[in-house]
Amino acid sequence: MSIALSRKIINCISIVGIIATIAVTIYFMRLGVFKDVNALRGLVGDSVILGPIIFMLIQIIQVVIPIIPGGISCAAGVLIFGPLAGFIYNYVGIAIGSVIIFLLGRQYGKPFILSLVSDKTYNKYIGWLDNEKRFERLFALAIFLPIAPDDALCLMAGLTKMSLRKFTLIIILAKPVSIFLYSLALIYGGTFLNGLLGF
């Protein structure tokens, strides 16, 4: 499969995912689900084991294949499971997904990365790879703060000589801050939107 075709497929999946996310969000807002935490939790099932597993699998998939915006799923995790458990499930799912795409980038290289990342994003950050030590510092900073496309950088990190151990350590130590900030921003943004639309 050519890069152009695979990129079109991924883009179509992403667009469908975004449209579906918006539609489902509006539907749930009309049902008042966001005002009733118990009803929201019921969406992923009452099982204390199966619900979190399903959610973490969704988070892993959305990192590997951008079906829905990651920030939205982070906020959903906190709303459904509460601040602490939601944060943990987000963290575990996203960390595992990040390691998977790092390994995929390493295994399949530039053609695979370009099927998931736009030329603009690739060209913008490929210069970071010129200096390995500099890349590791910039990569850690980008993961720590939500200032760059994390998933694209995780893929591109696979093109470097960075060890899996070091990559995993950066994700484990730096990822919690950006997950927390995304979740916080979207939860309060969702509350504001809910009040604005009068649902």
Automatic annotation (TrEMBL):
Primary location: membrane
Record-linked Pfam families: VTT_dom
Domain spans labelled VTT: 68-185
GO cellular component assignments: plasma membrane
Membrane topology, as annotated: Multi-pass membrane protein
Domain of life, per lineage: Bacteria
Keywords, ordered alphabetically: Cell membrane, Membrane, Transmembrane, Transmembrane helix
Residues that span the membrane, as ranges: 9-29, 49-81, 88-108, 138-160, 167-189
InterPro entries attached to this UniProt entry: TMEM64 (IPR015414), VTT_dom (IPR032816)
UniProt entry tagged with the keyword Cell inner membrane: no
Subcellular localization: Cell membrane
Family of this protein: Belongs to the TVP38/TMEM64 family.
Name this polypeptide is given: TVP38/TMEM64 family membrane protein
Taxonomy of the source species: Bacteria, Bacillati, Bacillota, Bacilli, Lactobacillales
